[in-house]
Fold:
Amino acid sequence: MRRRDLGGQASEGILIGRGEELAELEALLVDAKSGRGRSVVLIGEPGIGKTTLLSRQIAAADGMLVLQVRGNEAESHLAYSCLFDLCRPLVDRFDAISPHHAEALRSAMALNAPGDHDSLAVAVGLFELLATTASDVPVLVSVDDGQWVDSSSAEAIAFVARRVGPVPLCVMVATRDTGVDHDRFSGVDHDRFSGVPRWSIGRIPDPEAMQILSLHAVSPVERTVGERLVSESQGNPLALVELGVLLSDEQLSGRRPLPDQLHVGSSLSQVFERELALLPPETARLLALAALWEGNLRDLEDAPSLGIDRRHLGPAVQAGLVIVHDGKVVFRHPLERAAAVGNFDEGTVRGFHRALSELATDDLQRVARHLAAATDGPDDAVAAVLVDAAQATAVSESIDLYERSALLWVDPEDSAVSLIRGAESAALGGSALRAQSLAERAGMMAGSPSTALRCSHLQGRLALSGVLPIPDGRRVLADALEIAVGTDPDRAVRICLDAVLLSVVVGDRAGAVAIARRGVLLARSDPRAAATADVADVVLAGALAFDGCRVDEVALAEGCARLVSNAGLSPEVVTATEVAMNGLIAQERYRTAASIGNRFVQEARERGSTGAIP
Structure:
């Protein structure tokens, strides 16, 4: 694995997703070297890449004198502390500027006894010193963490930044967009910076963000997992790097669910925690409740047990951490939502969830999630609520609910059933690796033959998704079929259907027809398998078409449509659709195959099950 740094770049030095910003900043250096002074203030959230951009310009400043300074929070109250660091390399040039300005600089830097020089004399002295130096060699002034530069130094640097035009001098300032401390560089509307260009450094575009995540993650990242991480991080490079390292292999691959609240590493969490620590206790409590509720603030206010007062949000709004929009508390960054919750111990957070579960009586899924989060041990009643919620929601959202219920059942057999239900939902939703992981866990816990058979069936079916070699999948299904024939005819027919599709995938025409005929025979001869008879008929017609037999393509299309209408997007209907389309395509009846596919896609989108699309 290649070594990476924390700027979203590979070892070869390519900065991902910042090509436009780099080009524009490098153009400023070119202008400065040719005698046209330039300045810019880079504004962005923590971790967005401001420091990396500055570092790149420092590395690119060939033939320039680079003066670097970084704001220090611990020294932000010390007047001219940053000016001292900025000018210290140029002390031997003080004699080249006017004595009055040199004396003002020496006094400001505490190199001489304090004088009565005003701030203008210091600012003019800094400009004269930099301009005189730049007459010998172009100068780059780089100021990082501008939000912590003391106000006296900030005024002097800003004075210079507005007057670089005729001087081979470039001033670049990077500052955090926090919404607070408007007396410093973060005050983007301050008059002191009128005339100085401000560039907002925004999120990395999604494709490049995925690339950064993949480069830094400890293992390959499954597509839907990556999409959520990119969305939650809002394209923040440092957040992506830290999430890629902190999450487990199983979470990144989609085998295990991501936590509801994504917590980042120390670099960003320290920033968020420091901001939250400055808030009054009642404000921090309200933020945590709002982060967990994710609903209308009025709902929280109307709950007497919570004792919520909207006015307590004031300090957080003033600090720029949140806004209230359409009645909801909106955090400045999604990751700060997790930080607001992480500000409290587990017991307190469970209490928050317990109280919130009583507010969401009209939303079964929300009730279930809060009840589960409020529970710290096995609880069959809560597990049952989770299962009810899973059965009533979209396929993609049911997976986590089933898996959570498995953790709460007292009986391992009940847990195994929940896991296999989650696995079946994951398979239908297109999350094959998650489905495989859940099915394997279910198989290890299964105590009854019927649950074990259900696990084997799904594991064989997953060969269609590539997580298991096709030959292995066919063998698993063949073994499961022989067990099911004598114990569970309905399951036996369903196994036949999937075995037909695997035969089609490998081009085994005769095998597909033989297994399809066996499935129809089982469905028609045993009342316990009657529910699958119509599906078995469609699969047989598709297998015959695949084998070159003449079939009524209109009747086949109508049969597929009836299955979707009557049975929705069950695994059996998905299989029948795929077999029918493959059979028609084998006979070059593309228009009819397309009509079946279009109908299926429309239904899948309406049901939120796009992963089931063949």
Summary: The radius of gyration is 32 Å. The first helix runs from residue 19 to 33. Residues 8 and 212 are 5 Å apart (CA to CA). Confidence is low (pLDDT under 50) at residues 1-12, 180-191.
